[in-house]
Write a structure and sequence with these properties.
The complex is a heterotrimer of chains A (310), B (337) and C (375).
Chain A lengths: L3 E4 L2 E4 L2 H20 L3 H18 L1 H4 L37 H37 L1 H15 L3 H12 L3 H12 L1 H16 L1 H8 L4 H38 L9 H9 L8 H28 L7
Antiparallel strand pairs in A: 1-2
Helix pairs in contact in A: 1-10, 1-12, 2-4, 2-12, 4-5, 4-7, 4-8, 4-10, 4-12, 6-7, 7-10, 8-10, 10-11, 10-12, 11-12
Chain B lengths: L2 H29 L14 H10 L6 H13 L5 E2 L4 E2 H36 L4 H15 L2 H16 L9 H6 L7 H7 L3 H38 L2 H8 L4 H38 L5 H11 L2 H29 L1 H4 L3
Antiparallel strand pairs in B: 1-2
Helix pairs in contact in B: 1-13, 4-5, 4-9, 4-11, 5-9, 6-9, 6-11, 8-9, 9-11, 10-11, 11-12, 11-13, 12-13
Chain C lengths: L16 E5 L6 H8 L16 E2 L8 E2 L5 H7 L4 E4 L3 H4 L6 H12 L1 H7 L10 H8 L5 H7 L2 H24 L5 H5 L8 H13 L5 E5 L7 H18 L2 E6 L2 H7 L2 E6 L2 E7 H6 L4 H9 L38 H5 L4 E5 L2 E4 L6 H4 L9 H6 L1
Parallel strand pairs in C: 1-6, 1-7, 4-5, 5-6
Antiparallel strand pairs in C: 2-3, 7-8, 8-10, 9-10
Classes of the chains: A mainly alpha (310), B mainly alpha (337), C alpha/beta (375).
C-alpha cells in the first residue's frame, strides 16, 4: 500500500520514487528474461555464468598458489610442456607456468578488474554527468568539453599512456581504465537530466518544493538505469579486453595470473611451434568479451531497438 | 543552418579540443613523477639532480612549464626521445609514414569489406547471409587484436611456413629510393614490381589484423542502417517504378545507408590507430606503435607524450574530414530535417 | 497472424475513379501496396486471392500476384503507377529530381529513347552496352567507357532526349521552371512541389491505373485542393483509371465515380458515389457519414463512432463492426456477412439486408432493422 501525505493540498505518494525504482528493477528482470529468449543472448549469458562460476570457485578448481594465489606457480622441471601432459592439461609456459592455472585464476583476475573498474566508472560518470546536467550553464559547458577531450584520445592509447606513466602494476591498469571509461556514463546521465529538465512535470515538481536530489532519484535515475546497465554490461567485457591488451604489452607485474600476461609469455614460443599458451589464454579474453557483448546487445535490442545505431 | 556555417563551427572546435588534449598530455607527464626520471642515475647527488631540473625548466611553475612545452611543440620541438636516442622531430616522419601505410590499407580493407558485408547482410535480413554478417560483426568487436594477430601468425607461419615479419625484405628495401616513405607507393614510383609485391606481402597480415575490428564496426552499422532505409517509403516508391531489386538496393537504399556509416568510419579510425600499438609489436613493424610500446616499457615520457599527441591529432583530423564530408553529402543533417 | 486485409474485392474500369475510404488502420494502404506486390514477404504473406489486371492496349489479363518478377517490373511504374502519402518520404533525399524521373523512362522507355536519340547501331557488339546505358544500369567501367569518343556523342543525345522528356513530364504537372526543378534535390522543394514531382513520375509512362494513397494528407490545406484538381485533370487527359485512397469522405465524394468503404481489413460497402452518400446501407458507412462535421452542426459537437477498431490477430468469423454497431444482433458476432448486391450497383456486407430464412437463422437472432428505419 502506498502511503500518502498532504503537501499543500496536493495528495501525492511519498514513496512514489521508491516504487518507481522498484518497478524499474522488476522490469529489468523481465527484460533479462525476455532477452534471453534470443539464442545469441542466451549463449552470451551462459558463457558469462560459466566464467563467473570459474572465477568464484577458482580455489576449489585448482589449489591456489602460496603466498599469492594471483601469482602463477612455476614448475621449472616442466617448461614448455605441450597440452595433454600429466599435471599440465593445457601445457606450460616457457617459465614453467601451468596454462590451466593461469586461465582459471585469470578469470578471477578479470572479474576483479572488470567489477572494480565498472563500479568506479559508473560512480564517477554519474557524478560528473549529474553535476553537468543540474548545474548547467558554464559548468555544463566545461564538463562536457572535458568529456569531448577525453573522447579525442583513442581509449587504448589513453589507458596505455596513463598506465605507462604510473608504471607497470595491475593496480595501475585498474586506475588507468577507470580514468578512461567514465565518460560514457557521464554522457548518458547528463543527456537524461537535460531531457527530464525539458519536461514540464519536473517544473511542477520543483514548484511543489522538490529538491534536486529528489528529481534525481525520482525522474533521472529510473530513466537512466536501463542505458547504464546496458553500457555497464558491454564495459564488463570491454574493460577486460583493454586490460588484457595492456598487460600483453607488459604493464602488469610479471607472473600475474592474467590472460593478456599469459599470451605475452607465450608469444615468443610461437615461432618455435609452441602455439598453445597464446591460443588458449587469448581465447579466454575473446570469449569473455564476446559473451558480455552478446549479453549487452541482447539487452539493448529488447530495451530500445532504435539505439542499435549509436 | 547552412553547410558552410556548420563546417566553420566544426572547424572552430578543433583547436579547442587540441588544446584540451595537449593539457591532458602534459598533465599526464607530470602525474608519474619526474619527466627526466630515466636520465637520473643512482649516484647523482640532489644538487646534480636540481641542476638537470633547472636545465629542463622543471623548477618553474606548472603553467609556465606547460607554456614552454606547448611553445616547443608548436615550433616542432617534441623533446628528446630516449628510446630512439634522438630528437623526436628528427625520427618521427618515417615512423609516421610506416604507420600510415599500414593504417590506410587496413582502413581500405575495413571500408570495402565492411560496407559490402553490411549491405549483403542488411539486404537479406534474418537469412543465412545476415547471420554470417552478424557473427563477423560481433566477433570483430570482441576479438583481442593481439590474439587475432598471433592466431594469424600461428596459422600462416606454423601452418604454411609463411609469415613475413617487419616491413620489407632488407635487400629489396635497399634497392629502391624512398621519396614518400610509403613502400608500396615508392616501389611503384621506382617501377619495381618485385618490391611492390614484397611490400604488399609484408603489409597483408598486419593490415588484416588491424582492419578486422573496424570491418566489424562498419559492417554492423551499415547493416542496421540499410535495414532501416529499406523500410522507408522511397524504397517502395523505387520498387513501384519498376526498378529491379538490385538497383533499389544499390542506387537507393545503400546510398542513404552510407551516410550514417560514414561517421562510424571516422570513429573506427580510433580503433585502427590504437590497433597499431599491438599489431606493430606482434609483426615487428617499425612504426609509431612499435615506438610507443618501446617507450611505454622504458618509461620514456617525451616519446609517450609525442605519440599520444600525434595520434589524437590524426584521430581528430580524420573525424573532422568525415564530418565535413558528411555535411556536404547529406544535406539533411544540417538543414534540420 | 494478423489479417490486415481480408477478402477485399475491388474492380476499377478504364477511366474511372474508385474511392477507397476507411479509418486509419483499416487496411487501405496495405490493399494498395498488395496490388503491386509491394508488401514485403516475409513478414507479409499473400494468403490467397488474385489481382487481375488487363492493360488497355494488349487485352490479356494477368494476375499480378502470380506473374514472374520480371513481368511485374514491366508493369510497375509503366502500366500501373503509384503516388504515396508523404512525398517528402517517397522521394529519395539523396537523388536529384532528374535522377529519379530518369529512372522511370530508362526502365520502361529505353527503346523509344534509343530511337529518338538516333542511336541506330554503335560499333559491333556494343548494343548491350548502350542498352544498359539507356537503362541506366551501367557499371562503373561501362560508364568510363561511355565517356570515350564514339559513345560520348550517343550518350549526349540520349541524355538530351531524357532531359526533354523529364521537363515535359514536369511541366504537365504545372511546375513552373521545370529545368530548375529538375536539378533540385527533394529537400529544396516545397511539399506541394514534391507531390507534383511524384505525380509527374507516376504519369511519366502514361499508366492505365494510378493508385493514389492519400496523396494530399501530408500537404497544407491550401495546396490539397490544387493537387486534387491536378490529379483530376491529368486523369481526364490520360484517361487513366484511378484508385483514390483516403480517410477523408468529402475528398472522396468530390473526386470519385464510385466508392468502396473498408473496415478492419474488410470491404463493407461499394456503391456509386451518389448512392453511397445519399443512401448508405451499412451501419458503419452511416456512422462514418454522421461523423463528418457539417456546417449546420453546433460547434464542439463532433459526432464520433463509439469504441475502437478490433484487433486483427486471428479474427473469429463475425461481422467486424458488430461490437460498435447499434443494430447488432447475436448472429453478427457468430457469422460473417457476405458482400452482396442489395440494390443496383450497390453492395453491402450486413445481415440487415439478409433474409433470415436464407441464412437459416431464427428471427430473434437477427439485427434489429427497426433502429435503422427510424434514423
Amino acid at each position: 500500500m502506498a502511503r500518502t501525505a498532504e503537501v499543500g493540498g496536493v495528495i501525492r505518494p511519498v514513496d512514489g520514487r521508491l516504487r518507481a525504482l522498484a518497478t524499474r528493477t522488476r522490469r529489468l528482470s523481465e527484460i533479462a528474461r525476455e532477452s534471453l529468449r534470443n539464442p545469441t543472448t542466451l549463449i552470451g549469458g551462459v558463457i558469462v555464468v560459466l566464467f563467473l562460476l570459474m572465477a568464484l570457485f577458482a580455489p576449489l578448481l585448482i589449489e591456489p598458489n602460496t603466498p599469492n594465489a594471483y601469482q602463477m606457480p612455476r614448475d621449472f622441471s616442466s617448461v614448455n610442456v605441450p597440452p595433454g601432459t600429466d599435471g599440465h592439461v593445457l601445457g606450460t609456459t616457457p617459465t614453467g607456468g601451468d596454462v590451466l592455472y593461469g586461465i582459471v585464476w585469470g578469470a578471477r583476475t578479470s572479474l576483479r578488474l572488470s567489477i572494480i573498474v565498472v563500479a568506479i566508472t559508473v560512480v564517477i560518470g554519474v557524478a560528473v554527468g549529474s553535476f553537468a546536467g543540474f548545474l548547467g550553464g558554464k559548468w555544463d559547458e566545461v564538463l562536457m568539453r572535458l568529456v569531448d577531450v577525453f573522447l579525442s584520445v583513442p581509449e587504448l592509447i589513453f589507458a596505455l599512456a596513463i598506465a605507462a606513466v604510473l608504471g607497470p602494476a595491475f593496480g595501475n591498469i585498474i586506475l588507468a581504465l577507470a580514468v578512461v571509461f567514465w565518460v560514457k556514463y557521464a554522457r548518458i546521465i547528463r543527456g537524461q537530466i537535460i531531457h527530464v529538465k525539458q519536461n514540464e512535470y519536473v517544473d511542477a515538481a520543483r514548484v511543489m518544493g522538490d529538491k534536486r536530489w529528489r528529481i534525481f532519484l525520482k525522474d533521472v535515475l529510473p530513466n537512466s538505469i536501463t542505458p547504464v546497465v546496458v553500457q555497464a554490461t558491454v564495459d564488463m567485457g570491454h574493460v577486460v579486453l583493454i586490460g588484457a591488451t595492456l598487460s600483453f604489452i607488459g604493464l602488469a607485474e610479471a607472473g600475474l595470473a592474467e590472460w593478456g600476461n599469459l599470451v605475452s609469455e607465450g608469444q615468443s614460443g610461437i615461432i618455435a611451434g609452441r602455439w598453445w599458451v597464446a591460443t588458449f589464454a587469448g581465447a579466454m579474453v575473446f570469449l569473455w568479451s564476446l559473451a558480455f557483448n552478446l549479453l549487452g546487445d541482447g539487452l539493448r535490442d529488447v530495451l530500445d531497438p532504435k539505439s542499435e545505431r549509436r | 543552418m547552412q553547410v558552410r556555417e556548420y563546417i566553420a563551427r566544426r572547424l572552430l572546435t578543433l583547436p579547442i579540443l587540441m588544446l584540451g588534449v595537449s593539457i591532458l598530455v602534459f598533465g599526464l607527464s607530470r602525474v608519474g613523477g619526474s619527466p627526466i626520471g630515466i636520465y637520473i642515475e643512482h649516484e647523482m647527488t640532489p644538487a646534480e639532480v636540481a641542476k638537470i631540473e633547472e636545465r629542463y625548466g622543471l623548477d618553474e611553475s606548472l603553467p609556465q612549464q606547460y607554456i614552454a612545452w606547448l611553445g616547443g611543440v608548436v615550433r616542432g620541438d617534441l623533446g628528446w626521445s630516449g628510446v630512439s636516442a634522438a630528437p623526436v622531430s628528427s625520427i618521427i616522419l618515417p615512423k609516421l609514414m610506416a604507420t600510415m601505410e599500414l593504417a590506410m590499407l587496413a582502413a581500405l580493407i575495413a571500408v570495402v569489406l565492411g560496407v559490402s558485408m553490411g549491405t549483403f547482410g542488411g539486404a537479406r535480413k534474418n537469412k543465412l547471409g545476415d547471420h554470417l554478417t552478424r557473427v563477423v560483426a560481433i566477433s570483430g568487436a570482441s576479438i583481442p587484436i593481439f590474439w587475432f594477430g598471433l592466431l594469424l601468425l600461428i596459422v600462416f607461419y606454423l601452418g604454411f611456413g609463411w609469415a613475413p615479419l617487419g616491413r620489407a625484405d632488407p635487400s629489396i628495401y635497399a634497392r629502391i629510393g624512398h621519396p614518400t616513405g610509403l613502400y608500396t607507393v615508392d616501389s611503384l614510383l621506382n617501377l619495381d614490381f618485385g618490391a611492390f609485391t614484397d611490400a604488399l606481402w609484408h603489409l597483408a597480415l598486419p593490415a588484416i589484423t588491424m582492419g578486422y575490428g573496424s570491418t566489424a564496426i562498419i559492417a554492423r552499422m551499415m547493416r542496421s542502417s540499410l535495414v532501416e532505409e529499406l523500410g522507408e517509403d522511397y524504397v517502395d516508391a523505387a520498387r513501384a517504378k519498376g526498378l529491379p531489386e538490385r538497383l533499389v538496393i544499390r542506387r537507393h537504399a545503400r546510398r542513404n545507408a552510407l551516410m550514417p556509416t560514414m561517421t562510424v568510419i571516422g570513429l573506427s579510425w580510433g580503433f585502427l590507430l590504437q590497433g597499431t600499438v599491438v599489431v606493430e609489436l606482434i609483426f615487428n613493424w617499425p612504426g609509431l606503435g612499435r615506438w610507443m610500446t618501446d617507450a611505454v616499457l622504458q618509461g620514456d615520457q617525451a616519446t609517450i607524450m609525442s605519440y599520444v599527441l600525434i595520434t589524437s591529432i590524426i584521430f581528430l583530423a580524420v573525424n573532422l574530414v568525415v564530418d565535413v564530408a558528411y555535411a556536404y553529402l547529406d544535406r539533411r543533417v544540417v538543414l534540420g530535417d | 497472424m494478423v489479417h490486415a486485409v481480408d477478402g477485399v474485392t475491388l474492380d476499377i474500369h478504364e477511366g474511372e475513379t474508385l474511392g477507397l475510404v476507411g479509418e486509419t488502420g483499416s487496411g487501405k494502404s496495405v490493399t494498395a501496396k498488395s496490388l503491386l506486390r509491394l508488401v514485403p514477404t516475409p513478414p507479409g504473406v499473400y494468403a490467397g486471392g488474385e489481382v487481375s489486371f488487363r492493360p488497355r492496349n494488349s487485352g490479356e489479363a494477368v494476375d499480378l500476384l502470380r506473374i514472374p518478377d520480371q513481368q511485374l517490373r514491366g508493369i510497375r511504374g509503366n502500366r500501373i503507377a503509384m503516388i504515396f502519402q508523404d512525398p517528402a518520404k517517397a522521394l529519395n533525399p539523396a537523388l536529384s529530381v532528374k535522377q529519379q524521373l530518369a529512372e522511370v523512362f530508362a526502365e520502361h522507355r529505353s527503346s523509344e529513347l534509343f530511337r529518338d536519340a538516333k542511336i541506330v547501331a554503335g560499333p559491333p557488339g556494343t548494343r548491350p552496352l548502350l542498352r544498359r546505358a539507356a537503362h541506366r544500369h551501367s557499371t562503373f567501367f561501362e560508364r568510363r567507357l561511355l565517356d570515350l569518343p564514339p559513345f560520348r556523342a550517343m550518350e549526349k543525345r540520349l541524355e538530351r532526349e531524357l532531359d526533354e522528356r523529364i521537363a515535359s513530364a514536369l511541366s504537365a504537372t504545372r511546375i513552373p521552371n521545370p529545368a530548375k526543378v529538375m536539378n533540385s534535390y527533394p529537400h529544396e522543394l516545397s511539399g506541394g512541389m514534391k507531390q507534383r514531382v511524384m505525380i509527374a513520375q507516376a504519369l511519366a509512362c502514361d499508366p492505365d491505373l494510378l493508385i493514389a494513397d492519400e496523396p494530399t494528407t501530408a500537404l497544407d490545406v491550401t495546396i490539397q485542393a490544387r493537387i486534387l484538381d491536378l490529379i483530376q485533370d491529368l486523369q481526364e487527359q490520360h484517361h487513366a483509371a484511378v484508385l483514390y485512397i483516403s480517410h477523408d469522405l468529402s475528398l472522396v465524394k468530390r473526386i470519385s465515380d464510385r466508392v468502396s468503404v473498408m473496415y478492419a481489413g474488410k470491404l463493407v460497402e461499394t456503391a456509386t458515389t451518389q448512392q453511397l452518400f445519399d443512401d448508405p446501407l451499412h451501419p458503419y458507412t452511416r456512422a462514418l457519414l454522421a461523423a463528418v462535421p457539417t456546417a449546420e452542426q453546433a460547434r464542439g459537437e463532433l459526432a464520433a463512432i463509439e469504441g475502437t477498431v478490433p484487433e486483427l490477430v486471428d479474427p473469429e468469423p463475425s461481422c467486424r463492426f458488430h461490437s460498435r454497431c447499434p443494430h447488432a444482433g447475436p448472429i453478427c458476432a457468430a457469422r460473417e456477412p457476405q458482400l452482396l448486391t442489395r440494390k443496383q450497383q450497390h453492395r453491402a456486407a450486413c445481415f440487415l439486408y439478409d433474409d433470415p430464412q436464407d441464412l437459416g437463422c431464427p428471427v430473434d437472432l437477427m439485427p434489429q432493422s427497426q433502429v435503422s428505419e427510424t434514423q
